[in-house]
Amino acid sequence: MVCFDWAFPEVVRILALKEADVICQPANLVLPYCQTAMLGAAIQNRVFIITANRTGVERGLRFTGMSQIVSPMMKILAKSGRTGQEARVARIDVNEARNKKITKLNDVFKDRRVDLFSGLV
User: Fold this and answer.
1) Do the beta carbons of residue 32 and residue 64 sit within 8 Å?
2) What are the residues whose beta carbons fall under 8 Å from the beta carbon of 63, sequence distance 6 or more?
3) Which of 92, 32, 88 is nearest to 65 (CA)?
4) Angular region, 82: left φ>0, alpha ψ -120 to 50, beta rest
5) How far apart, in whole angstroms, are the C-alpha atoms of residue 3 and residue 75?
6) What is the mean pLDDT of residues 111-117?
7) Which of 26, 77, 117, 120 is disulfide-compatible with 90, CB 3.0–4.6 A?
8) pLDDT grade, residue 52 (50/70/90)?
9) What is the distance between the alpha carbons of residues 7 and 34, in angstroms, rounded to a whole number?
10) Domain range annotation of the chain
11) How far apart are CA 8 and CA 13, in angstroms?
12) d(C-alpha 42, C-alpha 61), whole Å
């Protein structure tokens, strides 16, 4: 997933439906809420999301930094600052992403009612 793809929820959903466990996002983010949006995308699709964002200023645009690694349960496993260059590492268990259950009775993929919205697109 590249940069502005964060704004389209179907990108993460399609990748998750294709059995991605970890979604990587190299980015030039300038809006302060993009990284927060990835928390929702992670839990809605039960995937890890790694955002690698720029820092600094170029052509009048200030990049927000705050690269992060997010778990399928919306936990920020690692996060960098707004400025400077950093490298962060987090240990993950891909089985956490492969378990699509939010509760023992609710599964984010099996409970989808595709029959109700398939004709909308």
Assistant:
1) yes
2) 28, 29, 30, 53, 54, 55, 56, 57
3) 32
4) alpha
5) 21
6) 86
7) 77
8) very high
9) 8
10) 3-120
11) 9
12) 27
Please give the C-alpha separations between residue 52 and each of 33, 61, 87, in angstroms, as whole numbers: 15, 17, 9
5: which 2 tokens? 């793809």
If DSSP codes are grouped into helix, strand and coil, which group holds residue 103?
strand
pTM: 0.91
DSSP 113: -
Give CA torsion, residues 110, 102, 79, 30, to 10 deg. 50
- Rounded to the nearest angstrom, the gap between the alpha carbon of residue 38 and the centroid of all alpha carbons in its chain is 4
pLDDT at 56: 96
Q: Quote the CA–CA distance of 76 and 39 in Å, as a whole number.
A: 8
CB 43 within 8 A of CB 74: yes
- What pLDDT shows up at residue 120? 62
3-120: which CATH topology? Answer: Nitrilase/N-carbamoyl-D-aminoacid amidohydrolase (3.60.110)
Going by pLDDT thresholds of 50, 70 and 90, the confidence category of residue 67 is very high
